[in-house]
Amino acid sequence: MPPLDPAILARRAEIVAALRAIVPGEGVIADEIGMKPFECDALSAYREMPLVVVLPDTVAQVSRILRYCQDNGVKVVPRGAGTSLSGGSMPVGDAILLGMAKFNRILEVDFPNRCARVQPGVTNLGITNAVQHEGFYYAPDPSSQIACSIGGNVAENSGGVHCLKYGLTTNNLLGLEMVLMTGEVVRLGGKHLDAEGYDLMGVMTGSEGLLGVVTEVTVRLLRKPATARAVLLGFPSEAGAADCVAAVIGAGIIPGGMEMMDKDAVHCAEAYVGAGYPLDVEALLIVELDGPPVEVDHLIERVEAIARDKGASTVRVSNDEQERMLFWAGRKAAFPAVGQITPDYMCLDGSVPRRRLTEVLSRMRDLSKQHRLRVVNVFHAGDGNLHPLILFDANDADELQRAEAFGADILRLCVEVGGVLTGEHGVGIEKRDLMGVQFTQVDLDQQMRLKCAFDPDHLLNPGKVFPQLRRCAELGRLVVHHGQVPFPDIPRF
Q1: Using an 8 Å Cβ cutoff, are 60 and 109 in contact?
Q2: Burial, 315: exposed, middle or buried (Cβ in 10 Å; 0-12, 13-18, 19+)?
Q3: How far apart are CA 339 and CA 42, in angstroms?
Q4: Residues 55 and 29 sit within 8 Å (Cβ to Cβ)
Q5: Which of 13, 50, 291, 297 is 20 to 30 A removed from 447 (C-alpha atoms)?
Q6: pLDDT, average across residues 45-52
Q7: Is the dihedral of CA 87, 91, 96, 97 positive or negative?
Q8: Mean of the per-residue pLDDT values for the chain?
Q9: Would you place residue 84 in the very low, low, confident or very high pLDDT band (cuts 50, 70, 90)?
Q10: Residue 311 burial by Cβ neighbours in a 10 Å radius (0-12, 13-18, 19+)
Q11: How does pLDDT run across 223-261, given as a tens digit for each residue?
Q12: pTM of the shown model
């Protein structure tokens, strides 16, 4: 992380007083015990106490805080529910931690236009709970949906088990309100289908808190499908399950969700939830088909035939809504369930082409032996978004180092086979030093130029995403050779 600024640390009392003038009452937390819950996010292997925590509850307060920080050179780390698995909201010792948890209201539900305006602290599942009585829901559903906030979903472009058919966060956003580092409040998009001009909303989605602070989100609402049924498919090998995934998509079938769990994950989830999973399989697929009943029945028959052709030893179809939800309950609880068999685990996130799944899973097992650490696989098989869980003991420094090295090797493997470093968790600090594996220096410089356009002083979420900080002036430098600038005929301003 960047070295702490002693000048800012020396001004801490002054900064705390200024924040208390903006956010009165209990909105500023400055004592060590009070700040302790904010010292890390869900990547809990890394911890640091913030300079101070501030919890605004109005857009005007957020605007004043950011303007004060801009004018006084104070860094800011935005934070939602703190469920980031990449360290995206990890505090920095000389930065204000800007918590958005008090922005927790649903401002408007517009059923005729099939959208809702919500504050960023509303939980992902809270949106569906607010609209399901009218037969609507919000499609992206990360495993942490009961806790993660919609603002954090925007920051990381979160997905979930149903993103294969219905898209990630970016595919379900219509509008944003955000506050820039200067304190200016801007709106992007709205209730209409497409925003005009440059796709700034696309730029903001997945920007990991480096460009601005989201204060309002307009999301797309979908009608609940007439029918949804889940098929449970057990395979005697991971290769058979991976081949089935490719065959189903190759047949032109796009399930609502398509998840894969290895043997260890199946056993953990079954002990945790009692979902009725078969325990004699090496890999389990959950394939959900939705739509009109006739279409769903037809697709289930096709999926069953493909699965049997690929060697499925277990084929079960949910008979009612309760059984369908039970199938998914095990998958949704897989991450906490794995906590039963290990003191700690590191949850990674990388994406690979579906056709390379078998190879990647096999090579991951080889890496497991090399690093002498177990790995449990639970992932979004339909779009190749892997979530390997590396099991280790954080109290053993050697195991933590081996877990980090193992994780880095998995992510390098993802890029090697034509995939990417992250599908939905973001880069944060976890993958920051691997950015050069996927991107050239030219790519990284171009990304930094975008950062400079929004935050030229690098005050927002410092130390995240970029492996090497570059001053904005460096990126705009001009090489003069023998007294001649390149392309002298071009006007310069």
Answers
A1: no
A2: middle
A3: 14
A4: yes
A5: 50
A6: 95
A7: positive
A8: 93
A9: very high
A10: middle
A11: 999 999 999 999 999 999 999 999 999 999 999 999 999
A12: 0.91
Q: Which amino acid is at 146?
A: I
CA angle 148, 150, 156 (to 5 degrees): 80
The span from the CA of 38 to the CA of 33, in Å, is 10
Tell me the C-alpha distance between 146 and 312, whole Å: 33
pLDDT of residue 483: 64
Supply 473's token pair.
């002036």
Neighbour count for residue 31 (Cβ, 10 Å): 9
Instruction: Sort 328 into a burial class: Cβ within 10 Å, 0-12 / 13-18 / 19+.
Output: buried
pLDDT greater than 60 at residue 317: yes
What are the backbone angles phi and psi of residue 295, rounded to the nearest 5°? -65, -45
The amino acid at residue 452 is C
Who contacts 226 (Cβ-Cβ below 8 Å, separation ≥6)?
291, 292, 293
Q: SS3 letters for the chain? A: CCCCCHHHHHCHHHHHHHHHHHCCCCCEECCHHHHHHHCCCCCCCCCCCCCEEECCCCHHHHHHHHHHHHHHCCEEEEECCCCCCCCCCCCCCCEEEEECCCCCCEEEEECCCCEEEECCCCEHHHHHHHHHHHCEECCCCCCCCCCCEHHHHHHHCCCCCCHHHHCCHHHHEEEEEEECCCCCEEEEECCCCCCCCCCHHHHHCCCCCCCCEEEEEEEECEECCCEEEEEEEEECCHHHHHHHHHHHHHCCCCCCEEEEEEHHHHHHHHHHHCCCCCCCCCEEEEEEEEECHHHHHHHHHHHHHHHHHCCCCEEEECCCHHHHHHHHHHHHCHHHHHCCCCCEEEECCEECCHHHHHHHHHHHHHHHHHHCCCEEEEEEHHHCEECEEEEECCCCHHHHHHHHHHHHHHHHHHHHCCCECCCCCCCCCCCHHHHHHHCCHHHHHHHHHHHHHHCCCCCECCCCCCCCCCCHHHHCCCCCECCECCCCCCCCC
In the block, which residue shows the tokens 């000048």?
7
Q: How far apart are CA 153 and CA 162, in angstroms?
A: 15
Give pLDDT, residue 366: 97
CA distance 206 to 159: 11
List the structure tokens of 150.
Answer: 């919609």
